[in-house]
Amino acid sequence: MLRPWRLNIEISRTANKAVYLQIADAVIEAIKSGKLRSGDALPGGRRLAENLKVNRNTVIEALEILIAEGWLISRERKGTFVSEKFRLSEQAKLLPVKPTTAHIYFDDGLPDARLAPMKELSRVYRQLLNRNARWQMLGYNSGLGDEEFREAAAQMLNFNRGMNVSSSQICITRGSQMAMFLSAQCLIEEGDVVFVENPGYKPAWRAFSHAGAELVPVRVDEEGIDVDELEQLLYKTPNIKAVYLTPHHQFPTTVTLSTSRRIKLIELSNQFGFTIIEDDYDNEFQFDQRAFLPVSSFENAHKYIYIGTLSKMVAPVLRMGFLVSDAEFVKKTGSLRKIIDVQGDSIMEQAILQLIKSGEIRRHMKRAIAAYKVKRDFFESLLAYHLRDKVEFKKPDGGLAFWIKPRSGVDLFELNKVLLSKGVQINTPDKFSFKEHIYGIRMGFASLSESQLEEGLISIAKVI
Amino acid sequence: MLRPWRLNIEISRTANKAVYLQIADAVIEAIKSGKLRSGDALPGGRRLAENLKVNRNTVIEALEILIAEGWLISRERKGTFVSEKFRLSEQAKLLPVKPTTAHIYFDDGLPDARLAPMKELSRVYRQLLNRNARWQMLGYNSGLGDEEFREAAAQMLNFNRGMNVSSSQICITRGSQMAMFLSAQCLIEEGDVVFVENPGYKPAWRAFSHAGAELVPVRVDEEGIDVDELEQLLYKTPNIKAVYLTPHHQFPTTVTLSTSRRIKLIELSNQFGFTIIEDDYDNEFQFDQRAFLPVSSFENAHKYIYIGTLSKMVAPVLRMGFLVSDAEFVKKTGSLRKIIDVQGDSIMEQAILQLIKSGEIRRHMKRAIAAYKVKRDFFESLLAYHLRDKVEFKKPDGGLAFWIKPRSGVDLFELNKVLLSKGVQINTPDKFSFKEHIYGIRMGFASLSESQLEEGLISIAKVI
Which end of chain B is more exposed for a tag (fewer CB within 10 A), N or C? Predict the structure, then answer.
């Protein structure tokens, strides 16, 4: 027998959310709260539409999404039911898609997907996909990306980041990792030495190692990479090819490379002939004073590869990055890219281009930066309240993460283990350290909700 | 002064095309036909909406698309105008986006983008993008692709192609080129020999060369790669690593590798220990009898890498491929993929998965195969009518291209030059040949319209 339908869904015609999504979310809420249970049958689409006083297609669209996301299952000729996956006691905690083991994961600084301008993105995707005849016209490009898109990227870099580049110096990639891979493959030969920050960003290191590079770590302090140590190492190292660094909000320590060190680094590059690989992974999130201009924008910086991402400006799920260097090197990366991947995602490039042209990206970034600034300050106050005297940290002037050192010297691997049993997860030092573990936790604050941030910190406070 | 508005747009509420697209297409037609000229002003959105008796937002959406595609330009406080790009005499021929030099390009067998189920794709994209909170949940995956998607791919391969594989043997990639690149990088060491078909598919060769392989060409006849020649070469070649081939509709000659040669190839693979790299790039387009089962599906084929694409099943602009091999090798490709690209396009994987689950892909493929079969037969009749006695060809039993040899022995590079001046383009032998040019033209018939096919062949008939 079917259980009675006991949902009261209030539909708002003026809300900023489509009606079918309001219905879908109401059903999800009902499942999470236990009002609807595993195996419960839903009324038929027609009856549901009458009850809710909406078009039947709207109901069908809501049901489709719920089925696709695994909340409901459809049995032929029998109807639609709440998925068997949800057992009552656990119901509130369950996620139907890829449940993570940790309930609260302090990631390394991912943006908040909820802020992304998905409605606008969805609109331009719809327009683009509906113009299918258009795609017939799109030939294969040079592997560097859509020309108009690269023009827009060059303008943005010149206008906002003090660069002086043309579109021929830009290669659009699928996320910054591909920019790293292409750079490594085109720059490095077996046995070349690449200096890296320690602690630093390991996925980039892997791209260099894969290309045959030998990595040499350089220490990082409160002014960023230690250029004096670097200089000493340069004098005694053969086969110097490049220095890879994250000058703006160093990863993971969040410090900014000081101007004097930037100048010294460029001098060393010119003296020893190495390439500066500058990974400017979160340039756009600056809260207090103006962002430092990239090392690559300095007039006397001649050998550089500047790498960035556009994903964070739009939506983290859209992976798009870029690399900037001299035109000859960029051409080389384009040729390699054709072998790896032919070219980028034309629809995505067109979609983002339209959002840039319409000003939507600019408006979104303004809103996002304001929201992240508030969240950073909130996270700081949480740290001060719950972990006063227990941790050391410096409020970062930008970026989406804090670098935190527990004063107790507690073993961070042990800490993570204990936290995991409480549904909280942190990143352990092996994620950032070259060999010997460097003490500290990089805690992203952007992707978690305010209550998750507080709950997570309370759990940590109880342990250390 | 503004020119008078002289468009009669008939809006159909029952057409299978959204109203804003009907308006946009009517404006494009008017520009192409010369009714609207460069610099012409359009009436304001409000007036246009009144004239057409549609909602003002609908008009705005139509204008946005026309501006985005470059047909119109918007000048602040002045209004909307036909783009200056269109000069009257040329107007009918001009495409606003990426004009190709050739009007009619016989490509190497691309599908018809107009057949793609874009409406359905657009619908699932909208649903997925609107669920932005959902993306927060999606963690990074193993680099092999979404688990559920790989399950679906394994099912498809086992059910339709006689394979016997599990999801752990599949890596989803961005187009088959990336599958080729990953395979090459994980399989080949400097100096290894890879045998290739001659003529053959050069973009794959580049992936092997880049990984350090030495390529050795093997001739192709009407039964596919010549396995006897291959055998002789095997006896005198050191460092044998792999044979790369396109057994199903050989690229470019469209012949199918005979069963006896398939069996011989597998025996040679087991005897000499080389890997069979099987590129099954258009398995799904089979018109007459059943498609041959892949070499990789034979029970005694032990060392194989099977590569395919999903792009052609959905829409050519969506680039998605896969590779299949033993689980250990596939794991290696997944690790490398994380260095290159982190992971695939989660939205696209989810979108295509939904179209697979809803049966839309199956329905689309049925329609598409029926349409391509008609088009193949039509192209054959055109060849017989316009080029009788001038060319030799065999009607392919599948695939989206013909292999054609002019009897006159005309220089194909010269032919292409003359044709280009008439707005027609063909692929020259350098695109397929190892060194010495092999005589023949691969002519794709799917992406061109019936009238383009005829117009193109008439141009060729006039020259040879």
Answer: N
